[in-house]
Write a structure and sequence with these properties.
With 215 residues, the protein is of the alpha+beta class. 20% of the residues lie in helices and 35% in strands. Strands 9-5-6-7-11-3-2-13 form an 8-stranded antiparallel sheet, with no helix packed on it. A 3-stranded antiparallel sheet has the order 1-14-12, with no helix packed on it. Strands 4-10-8 form a 3-stranded antiparallel sheet, with no helix packed on it. Helix 2 packs antiparallel against helix 3.
Length: 215
């Protein structure tokens, strides 16, 4: 119960918590109502940067969600051209994270990070389809334990201004482990082959736990 009320905080959150806490103190000295607004915003910052533990299925026949949020798209498409995969067909699942979702991203399968590519871009609303191609984004190419290529994309949104990477090329991960986060409203996309999608548009997802696809 304690962990649900006071979840673990991501390392990225401490400096924001201090900034908002000090700002709240100043606002409270100016006006009590402004101080109350500051307290509400500080609590929101704390919960935005929450980093709860998750329990994955630990089964390579499944892919788990890379993000908390809502499924925007499930579609067949070419792979990302940035990773030279435009001539291969993939299933793509897009997940929108609003400012109340946990923004820690997780690897959908066990495997090795074979490439990480950052692409600078715009900051359009992450719920828009063109955000996939226009916005700031970070690609992770993963070789799963079957030797297949899985791609996770972190896409910054309207408010987000930084994508955080917590892994590196050559790193090996267990299914559901943390690979990074995006600050303040964003989108995550998952590309895969040889799996059948298990989710539908508007379905809620939980990073590391929701089953996205099955072999």
């Amino acid at each position: 119960m304690f962990d649900k009320i006071f979840p673990k905080l991501h390392n990225e959150g401490y400096k924001f918590l201090v900034i908002f806490g000090l700002a709240t103190l100043v606002l409270y000295l100016i006006d009590g109502f402004l101080g109350l607004i500051g307290i509400i915003l500080t609590v929101w910052v704390y919960y935005f940067f929450r980093d709860p533990d998750r329990i994955s299925i630990n089964d390579e026949d499944y892919l788990v969600s890379p993000a908390d949020g809502v499924v925007l798209q499930v579609m067949e498409t070419n792979g990302p051209k940035e990773l030279n995969l435009e001539n291969k067909k993939f299933t793509k699942v897009s997940i929108f994270m609003n400012v109340f979702d946990c923004h820690v991203n997780r690897i959908p399968c066990g495997g090795e990070i074979t490439d990480i590519l950052y692409v600078a871009g715009k900051f359009l609303n992450a719920s828009l389809d063109k955000a996939s191609e226009d916005n700031e984004r970070n690609y992770y190419k993963i070789k799963n334990n079957f030797g297949e290529e899985i791609v996770v994309v972190q896409i910054a949104g309207l408010v987000a201004r930084r994508i955080v990477t917590e892994t590196s090329r050559g790193a090996k991960h267990d299914q559901g482990s943390r690979i990074g986060m995006i600050r303040f409203g964003s989108r995550a996309e998952l590309y895969f082959e040889n799996y059948k999608p298990l989710v539908k548009v508007n379905q809620k997802t939980i990073a590391g736990e929701t089953l996205i696809a099955k072999r």
